[in-house]
Amino acid sequence: MAAAGEHVSSFRxxxxxxxxxxxxxxxxxxxxxxxxxxxxxxxxxxxxxLRNKVxxxxxxxxxxxxxxxxxxxxxxxxxxxxxxxxxxxFFAVVRGDDSHLNFRVELEIKNNQxxxxxxxxxxxxxxxxxxxxxxxxxxxxxxxxx
Length: 146
Description:
Blueprint: E1 15-22, H1 29-38, H2 42-56, E2 78-79, E3 82-87, E4 91-97, E5 101-110, E6 113-122, H3 125-145
Antiparallel strand pairs: 1-6, 2-3, 3-4, 4-5, 5-6
């Protein structure tokens, strides 16, 4: 098993990006997950609800990932269409796999920063079309959630 922050995966990466934001010393990953999913701006919930209504027409997963207690989660727990692949005090990997694409989000608290690395694997042409159509929103939403 890889050390926190050194995640090793057989996951093919077709797209990857990084964002970071200042983060308070002493808080842990469960605090960060709780803030990201329960205290994010209302516009994010509106956009995710809109996404779920639209992609549901195409048969993609739409289970809302905002009904969980971040302080009780552990590795391999699922909430909505997301799974906590790995979780420690200062590192987490959240994954979502579907027919069109798979993604991993690595979160790390390091040097008073919350660092977010998103990795995407396209499974077909629809996955590429879908991802590049939401990419402008991704670039706004992820920093807002951090």
